[in-house]
Structures are given as C-alpha cells and as structure tokens.
Amino acid sequence: MIIDFREFETFPAKKVLVGGPEKISLDYQGVHSATQVEVDLSIQKSGEEFFCQGQVAARVAVECARCLKLFEADVNGTLDFIVCSIEYHEANAREAVDAEDYVHFADQAMRANIVEVVRQAVLLEIDMMPLCSDDCRGLCVRCGRNLNEGDCGCSGDEIDERWAALKDFMPPRQQTDNK
Ligand SMILES: [Zn+2]
Ligand SMILES: [Zn+2]
C-alpha cells in the first residue's frame, strides 16, 4: 500500500486505495487473512509533513472462538498518522505524537508504504472473541463435534472431564460424611 505524495497538487487531498489479500497480511492469533482492504484518506500538508486521516474497511477471515470455524467479518477502523522524511522527523519530533503514528518516506521520491499503520488499525478493531454467530453452540467438550451441525448424543449432565481428574485428589466420601 504505497502512496506517492508527489501526486497531490492541492490540499486537502483525497486518496483511496483498494487491495486484495496480497496488500496486507494479518499474521495474528485467530486471524487468518484479509480478503479485501479499502483505505479512504484525507491528506493535509503542513510544512514538510502530511497529516493523513481516514478510514479502513477490511473483510477478514477469523476463527470463531467457540466452534473454531473460519468465517468472514467486516472490520472498520480509523486511520490517523503523519508522513514525512525520517530526517525531518528526527529534527522535529513532536512530543505528543507516538512514534508508531509516523510513516517515513521510503526514498527521496516521497513514496511511503502505509501497510503497517493500516494493519494496526485493522487488528485493533478485530474482536478478541470473534463468534460466527451470537448463538454459536460451540464444540462438545467430550467428543469435539461442532454442535451447530447437530447434537452429538453425549449426555450433557455427565461430569466435566476437567473435574473428573480432581476426584482422585479428594478424600473418600465416607470420611467427610461421617464426621
Ligand atoms: Zn462458532
Ligand atoms: Zn459430544
């Protein structure tokens, strides 16, 4: 996702970038890929800095936290960053702006790759516990079957395996009952 800042003649300028999965990789737990990314920016110039604000809309493939099925979710994030040369930034660092909110020109030609700020904006908006649907029934804890696809036949009131292991550590029942 490269912007050539020489292409703008008047400000504020508008820039739209649309890309497929090759544009942004989302290597992150439970997030598998972005199938579509659209960035819509408004760019204002001040001195040697370009102030970029806008939105990113992405369609991402994520794993359901309950049933582990992959599904697609739409994510909308906001973008707010400054583009300038690394030399200018080092000489004029703004105390109030985090370093990660800066993007530096990759070369003398004023091209900048904004993929990292876009990636961060998308990841920020992805649900920590994504669910394929609000009433996802998840997986059976005994047999692992996806319960959205039907019941598995395991009895729901049997003791949970996590507690079954604890039984061995408990004192025999008679001793606690007949004090
Ligand atoms: Zn699910
Ligand atoms: Zn089951």
SSE layout:
Layout: E1 2-4, E2 13-19, E3 31-46, E4 49-63, E5 70-84, H1 86-91, E6 102-104, E7 111-113, H2 115-125, H3 161-167, H4 173-177
Parallel strand pairs: 5-6
Antiparallel strand pairs: 1-7, 2-3, 3-4, 4-5
The structure holds zinc ion (2 copies).
Describe the structure in your own words.
The protein has 179 residues and is α+β, with helices and mostly antiparallel strands. 16% of the residues lie in helices and 35% in strands. A hairpin with a 2-residue loop joins strand 3 and strand 4. The relative contact order is 0.16. The C terminus is likely disordered. One zinc ion binds next to loops.
Shape: elongated
The ordered H/E elements are: EEEEEHEEHHH
Q: Biggest sheet: strands, sense, closure?
A: 5 strands, mixed
Biggest sheet, spatial arrangement of strands: 2-3-4-5-6
Distance between the termini: 73 Å
Parts with pLDDT < 50 across at least 5 consecutive residues: 175-179
Total discrete domains: 2
| Beta-strand content | 25-35%
The helicity comes to 10-25%
Average pLDDT score: 85
List ligands, each type once: zinc ion
Number of strands: 7
Determine the structural class based on helices, strands and strand pairing: alpha+beta
H/I helix tally: 4
